[in-house]
Structure formats: structure tokens, C-alpha cells
Amino acid sequence: MTAAYAMRAQRYLHDFGATAQDLTRVSVKNRGNGARNPRAHFQQAISPEDVEQSRPVADPLRLLHCCPNSDGAAAVLLCSEEFAKQLTTPSIRMRASVVRSGDFHTSYRDMTWPDITARAAKAAYEMADLKPADLDLVELHDAFSVAEFLHTEALGITERGEAYKATARGEFDRDGRVAISPSGGLLSRGHPVGATGVTQICESYWQLTGEAGDLQVPGAEVALTHVTGGGIFGVDNGACSIHILTTT
Fold this sequence. Notes:
- This protein has 248 residues and is α/β, with parallel strands linked by helices.
- The protein has 9 helices and 7 strands; from the N terminus they run αααββαβαβααβααββ.
- It has helices at 2-16, 20-34, 48-53, 81-84, 115-128, 146-154, 163-168, 185-189, 196-208; strands at 56-58, 61-62, 93-101, 137-139, 179-180, 222-229, 239-246.
- The strands form 2 sheets. Strands 3-7-6-4-5 form a 5-stranded mixed sheet, with helices on both faces. It has a two-stranded antiparallel ribbon with strand order 1-2.
- β1 (56-58) and β2 form a beta hairpin.
């Protein structure tokens, strides 16, 4: 996967004029968010120099452009609205739950466009009767720093080739236009694989119920979680899951 994302990164930089420094901004932002998260694998902020001095892994990716393999577990209680009213804990609403499979073909594939994310997002927005502009926060599958650019564009949060500029302008900061990976994301919180998607929902729950503490996104009412996996020859990913959660 590191080699695959490195190729995607090279193509993105080539096509849209981004640089390795733009990839580094993602790592610095998300590790900074994770420094506030007591559940994160890495709880220390890093500087651009830390990233640029970390060892090369697969050009242009360095070690701190990559998420760690982590151990972890997470759980949520999914129930009816009627049952939720009997609980003493606050509840949120799941407005959309979508899973899509990869589209297999052996012809040319645009490595800068995660089609499976775009298809899953379209279905999720339609199910929730919401649009990208309604999102307050996104817990994104940022297994590698370039994934923030690829997937925010496929989610419709920015236009093609514009995500790295949005990151640089601070639009994806915790207090920006839409907070991307306010928990620290996979880059900081870690990637325990099977637990990652449920963890994203947990982090979103705390945000929407105002219980996120130092990670709180101001006025958060709509959250989207996004996870992909299972890279297979001929497909972008084997599966993609997107959930949209709201306070009402």
C-alpha cells in the first residue's frame, strides 16, 4: 500500500503542481490534532522539519507521511430512536450508511481519483439528503498524507486539484471550513485496521455530543466518516464505507 500511495502522490504532485511540502502540511496538522487526543497512538506534535528529516519510505513519502500499524478496539451501540430515549447517555442520528465495492477493470485508471470514494459519497449524500457543504467534520482514511487530498476531492469538499491549497489555507483545520481528521486521523490516532472505521464513528459521536474536549470542533452538527481497504489488482480499493451522522 505504501508503494501504491507513493505512486498516487507522485501523480498528484505532477498533475496539480503540489509539492512534498504540501504532503508534509497534512502530517503536521493531523499529528498536531492527535497531540490533544488521549486515545491516539502518537500524542506529540511535529514540525515540518521533523517530517522532512524522517527516513524515506517510498518517494515522495517519508516515514511521517505514513500511518502506523496499531492495536486498538472500538464499539458503538446502534439502536432504534425509541430505545435511545430510554438511555441516560446522549444519542446522535445515523443519516447514511453506505458500503461500495471496487469497480474491477484492467484499462487505464486515474490514480488521482478514488472512484470508489466518489461513488460511495454520492450514495451517502443522497441517503442523508445532505451535501458536502453541510459537513462540519470528516474522519478520513488518511493512511498516507496524500490521501487527504485524494479523498476530500472525491468527497466533493474541494474541486479536483484544489485540496492541497485548501489545506495550506487552513480550511481543514479544527476551526476551519470543515475539520478533516480532528482526532488526528490514521496518521496520529493509528490504524488498527478492523477497529478503524468504528473508531471514526466514536470520535464523531463525541464531537456531535460536545464531549470531544480539546478536540472539539466548534458547533459540530454534521460528521462524515470514511474508510477504505482491500486493495486488489484492477480496482481502486476492495471496499469503501461512508457514514453520515447528525445531531438531529
